[in-house]
Amino acid sequence: MSSSAMKKKVLLMGKSGSGKTSMRSIIFANYIARDTRRLGATSKTKQNLFKSNSFLKDVFANCNLKKNLHFLLTLVDVEHSHVRFLGNLVLNLWDCGGQDTFMENYFTSQRDNIFRNVEVLIYVFDVESRELEKDMHYYQSCLEAILQNSPDAKVFCLVHKMDLVQEDQRDLIFKEREEDLKRLSRPLACTCFRTSIWDETLYKAWSSIVYQLIPNVQQLETNLRNFAQIIEADEVLLFERATFLVISHYQCKEQRDAHRFEKISNIIKQFKLSCSKLAASFQSMEVRNSNFAAFIDVFTSNTYVMVIMSDPSIPSAATLINIRNARKHFEKLERVDGPKHSLHMRMR
Amino acid sequence: MEEDCRPLLSSEPTGESYSHRGSTGSLDIRTKRPFYVEPRNIVSDDLQERISAEAAILNSRVHYYSRLTGSSDTVLSPPNHVIPTAEEIYIYSPLGTAFKVPDSVQASKNPSIVTIFAIWNTMMGTSILSIPWGIKQAGFTMGIIILIFTGLLMLYCCYIVIKSPKAIKVEDTSNWEFPDVCRFYFGKFGQWSSLFFSMVSLVGAMVVYWVLMSNFLYNTGQFMYNHANNVNTSDSEFGTNGSERVICPYPKTNPGRNDTTSTLCQITIGNDTSGSSFEHYWSKTNTIPLYLIILLLPLLCFRSASFFARFTFFGTISVVYLIVLVTIKAAHLGFHLEFHWLDPSQFYVPEFRLLFPQLTGVLTLAFFIHNCIITLMKSNKKQENNVRDLSLAYLLVGGTYMYVGVLIFAAFPSPPLSKDCIEPNFLDNFSSSDVLVFVARVCLLFQMITVYPLLGYLVRVQIMGQLFGNHYPSFLHILVLNIAIVGAGVLMAMFYPNIGSIIRFSGAICGLALVFLLPALVHMISLKQQGKLTWLSIVFHSFLILLGVANLLAQFFM
Question: A219 to chain B nearest CA, in Å?
Fold first, then answer.
């Protein structure tokens, strides 16, 4: 724990059953089944363990721990996923919302550890939850902890499972929730998204979140546009490395398919899953036919690039050289921020 | 508390709310559900999408999510409400063609007789009340000829409308209506123009309904007042004497008429207007249109019209009752026909009149079903009989109109009254104390009160859907739209309650676009694409378009 205390964290929190694990597995392309097999006891099992073992219960009941805050946390986390993204952010997944008061005592002391060094807090709400008051209560507790331990953290709220709401009611319900959340979050500013794994909203929400975490992203975008125009590409996409979320793109003419970013991300993530079965890692790809040529390659330490050329007469080597030279230029851009690896956005 | 005891993720999806949808039996179906759609052909630059964008992206997601879990794990399996409905699922063959799964549990198909009846029921509108007036405007013989001719013409136009989606091979047109066909051929312009002209016919019908509802409500109230107060109205109205009383509400001064008769009419009309306070508060043009606002504006603002759809059987009952009524009246009054071919006489109208475009205008709306015929024909069990069934339906409708029109015209007692007295709403020619007609008015009033919100709903869905993409953007939008429509109706009812004119103008306008112009153009273009366009076709269909234009122009000049 001590080494990871230096690393910045992304906390993905929410009530159990709100969809965090599915969300994480979809965004980061982790096998779900494999994780649960690998995991030891989950929170539920631990809770059962504590409940059934009266000796442990007595021990904790007699513990002389501070209990001045109603801070309810149950320990899940064996999902210390080894997912790193955006350089050195570690994703931590926590369930919020146990009810056992004796757990409260035990974990209040862990609270500071959990909430220290947090870069981003992503809180997931289940739109179908019947206990709105409780959800808001847990959320507020997390916010208090954030204010105490990592006051510079960015806060995002996802209202999840929106596909279970009728289509004509979705905007209304989301607006209501957003107002409540923004009000509750003061003085912190929270950004709210409505998401569902069955439509494009999840992808877009996470793309926005990641976009806000990339350092110098606007400079990257300007340079991307120049790059695309110089090499005469039809479209150039910039992906985040771990999640293959499209951070920014440049297109020189209108494209038909509005969902192409998510489709490409899904295809590449599936390919990465296949590669990992062979203990291989994906680095680059070229797809070519008589109508177009597409190149996907590593770009900077945080990003991948995809270049699409509709003039197939341009030889691959030319485009690859261009990408390699651009890479050097873009890396310089990132390195300008220095070894501090500060991930706060700087407006230049 | 129980939720927390269950493991976070397991192979049985008990904790996820997704699994609560559908029964446990569906669990097996979900793992076996073959929702796979082959990616579209990326080799050729085919602009036509074979699958919708939503289906393509959902397929991509399902492919990807299925890689993330074990095959027996249904955690990330698509829930029922996310999968497109059976009508939207296609099966692709590796050769690139696609066909729909024939749904075995499809909406029940109807035998021909039911389809014919449904078409008859939909076409029979309130224009039946104006047919005798239309025949009078055109002249008796000419009226009959025009009715047959217009019926055949509109039948042909209907036939090319139902043929039009079948000619489109590149897209799946099984859910299309005629506006979608127009959008396919003419782009946004076609879609908007077919929408606009559909609106004209609907809003025209709603205005006519308001005028008629005011009329019927007035007469109903008048009947009950007269009955309660035992007022005898036979002196105040100009009409026949005897058991079957036919009146002439607005006797026109005629060159052949006596001056005494005309002054008598003017005096009697004068007596009507200086009425009691009841007549002051219960006036056909001054107050009743406003009373109706209180009843109907709230009904229009309902979110869903399914409640009113239950009452559509009233329309059939009303029409059947009208036919029976007409038969009884004709039997009692006897026939009064004299044939004066070209010159007007005191009591009769010429057989051929220059005012015949008014009849064609009315008939264009009376035979209008072109914006929904494709949907009605879809539920026909034997699709190969569509043309035959459509023709039979038109024959039935034409026969009904002919029957009512001819009988009323022929039975109109001409020696005391002139045929010119036939009103655009033939029920106006009967006194408000006539019991049989009173029942007809009450039936029609009730039917119209239940159909009016349905029409309002159709207008709202189409306008709001096209303008805002949402059928119910906000209460304010709906209220503004409803006030506009109701306002138009009230203004017409107060200042120009001549339903004959309203029907013929709206009929000619929407007929020009949706009956003559667009179907003919679509037919010619599809023939050209198939390479079967002959000069005869071009001439004939251009002639159809000209007829439509002439129909509209003639309404203004005649």
Answer: 31
